[in-house]
Amino acid sequence: MLQTITDKIASPISQHLNQCGLMFRLFSRVKSINSLQHKMQIKGDNYRSGKSLIQDMIGIRIVLYFQDDVDALAFFYSCGEVVSSSIDEFDTSTFRPQRLNLTCNLPTELIDDFRKSLPEEFAPYIDNTYEMQIRTV
């Protein structure tokens, strides 16, 4: 069920990017039980105390071929359901990808199914967001 929800998030993003004419690759994933267990071992105290919640149960990665396209998508996604964002500063002296990380609210119509699909032992520590990483090659 979580993969179906992930596909419902990723599909319109992919369609929109195709319509824009950008060259991109889109990948998506659902965090595995092993990954959740590992995350709880490392940061579990923060989650159990309520200081933070897991925000990357669903992850979307958009890989772009040109740095300017990251800036274009940054503008596009700043108009939506973005909870938080961080972007790498462009540095001409360093060869590395530029990244834009976004934490976005799940669409309202998917929240009930999302909550029902979460592994029961981890559900209290997961919020209703997903992570999107936009980066250059």
Strand content range: 25-35%
Distance between the termini: 31 Å
Give Rg in angstroms.
16 Å
Report the uncertain regions. none
Note the run of SSEs as H and E: HEHEHEEHE
Q: What is the general shape?
A: globular
| Spatial sequence of strands, sheet with the most strands | 1-2-5-4-3
Structural class: alpha+beta
Main beta-sheet annotation: 5 strands, mixed
Relative helix content: 40-55%
Give the overall pLDDT as a whole number: 87
Q: What is the tally of helical segments? A: 4
Total beta-strand segments: 5
Describe this structure as you would to a colleague.
- This protein is of the alpha+beta class and 137 residues long.
- The protein has 4 helices and 5 strands; from the N terminus they run H-E-H-E-H-E-E-H-E.
- The protein has helices at 2-20, 33-48, 67-77, 108-117, and strands at 24-30, 58-64, 82-87, 99-105, 129-136.
- The protein has a 5-stranded mixed beta sheet with strand order 1-2-5-4-3, with helices on one face.
- The longest helix has 19 residues, at 2-20.
- It is globular and about 45 Å long.
- The two termini are 31 Å apart.
- 18% of the residues are buried.
Question: Topology of this structure?
Answer:
Elements: H1 2-20, E1 24-30, H2 33-48, E2 58-64, H3 67-77, E3 82-87, E4 99-105, H4 108-117, E5 129-136
Parallel strand pairs: 2-5
Antiparallel strand pairs: 1-2, 3-4, 4-5
